[in-house]
Amino acid sequence: MLPTIVHGSSNKRKLQHRSQFSPSTKDTSVDGLETQLYRAVHYFLLLSEIFVSLPYDAHQHLPTDNNNKHSIWLILHIVWCITIYASLIVAIYSESTNINIDLPTIHKPLYFGEYLIYILHIFLIITSSYWGRHKCRRFLHIIAEFDYTLIDFKRQPKYERLTCFLKTHVVLVIFFVFWTATVNYFYSNGIFLNYIRSLVVYLLPNLILSISLIQYYTLLYTIAQRSRRLNEILLGELSQNNSPRFLNEKLQRIRLLYSALQVFTKEVNNSFASSVVLVYIGSFTNLAVNIFLIYKYVDEWNTSAMSLVFYSLVWTIMHIAKMFLILYYNQSIQNQNSSTILIMNEIGGQNTEMEDTVTHFVLQLIINTRTNVVCGVAELNLKFITTLLTAMSTVFIFLLQYDITYEALKLTHNSGNPL
């Protein structure tokens, strides 16, 4: 078994790590692969530190000595985090007291719920990043250690794909920021103070959340890619006429690697569980408001409604994308597990002597089905979309009925006639 993956890392660096799965090559070490991995994600880790979703020095391969320079940078980063959080609270207070005071009654609790979730979520990201300040290094060490074992199966790590993955998601976030900031200017009617306040209240927390979610997507992506490589190894065994004893030994090694991946998957989801739940609560609340507002703007269309529709549409797309990507990357891991079961059944059909090993392997994959469950309440896969759509339609119908009743009561009050 891979001790670091299954039982956790001790944060010690070894120039030559060896386990029962370790390859015989002396040219590659876990530390060497970890250095390559840090180079691949270096700039994204720096970006995460700037947007307070990782603690200071997370981008460094080895911890910095506790010298004066390090202490100063650490204090500056903590002050930066406090400044960001304080600015968010002040802007939300100003927005709720000056802008949202004239909102319809039904909208006020929805907006208040959205603000409260932003405050809680950003606080959770900042505090959890410092409480678990070594978790980033440990996760990267686990990935490097796993890649080291794959070298024995002639599978070299390709960290260029990981860099491309990160760049793609960062570009999407930049694209979202650009369009949101542009549309928000027209939504604020060109009033500079309202424009800046709106950016701080809505754009800033979602930017921080997006950077934090990219970390989550990346970990899920790396797990799915390594599951795919193990499936490629299993497929390679189908085309070879190895002896049952040799094949059994190899399958046992691969089975333990799968077990390590399942443990790692569960740990990743547990680490981001609270954040994922808050993402869904916040995005669901925001979607409920924005979809209803789009309906109202279209129903009462005029030239000034165009900027309002585009503003709500941009936020709707962003929140849908966040919820979908969480499910998509979790589903990709489950799809690889399903492929593994099919491959193992095929191996078992061709080698009757391997029945016990194949059965044990398949049962391991079937039994460990809660690796993608967060907080014990939701299984993260694409089937969850049906639940979201049902809940969203219920909330939309409620808002629509309330709006019709509110308009009728308002009309009656203005006319002075009984209903």
What attributes characterize this protein structure?
single chain; 419 residues; mainly alpha; two-stranded antiparallel sheet; disordered N terminus
- The overall strand count is 2
Number of helices: 12
Q: Kindly name the structural category.
A: mainly alpha
Strand content: under 5%
> How many domain regions?
1
Low-confidence stretches are 1-27
Average per-residue pLDDT, rounded, comes to: 81
Q: Largest beta sheet, briefly?
A: 2 strands, antiparallel
Span between termini: 74 Å
- Shape from CA axes? globular
Cross-sheet strand order for the largest sheet: 1-2
Order of helices and strands: HHHHHHHHHHHEEH
Approximately how much helix is present in the residues?
Answer: over 70%
Radius of gyration (Å): 26 Å
In a few lines, what is going on in this structure?
Helices cover 77% and strands 1% of the residues. The protein has 419 residues and is mainly α. A two-stranded antiparallel ribbon has the order 1-2.
Give a structural overview:
This protein has one domain (3-382). Helix content is 77%, strand content 1%. It has helices at 3-7, 30-50, 68-99, 107-131, 135-150, 159-187, 192-238, 244-271, 273-299, 305-350, 355-367, 384-415, and strands spanning 373-374, 378-379. It has a two-stranded antiparallel ribbon with strand order 1-2.
SSE blueprint and pairings:
Blueprint: H1 3-7, H2 30-50, H3 68-99, H4 107-131, H5 135-150, H6 159-187, H7 192-238, H8 244-271, H9 273-299, H10 305-350, H11 355-367, E1 373-374, E2 378-379, H12 384-415
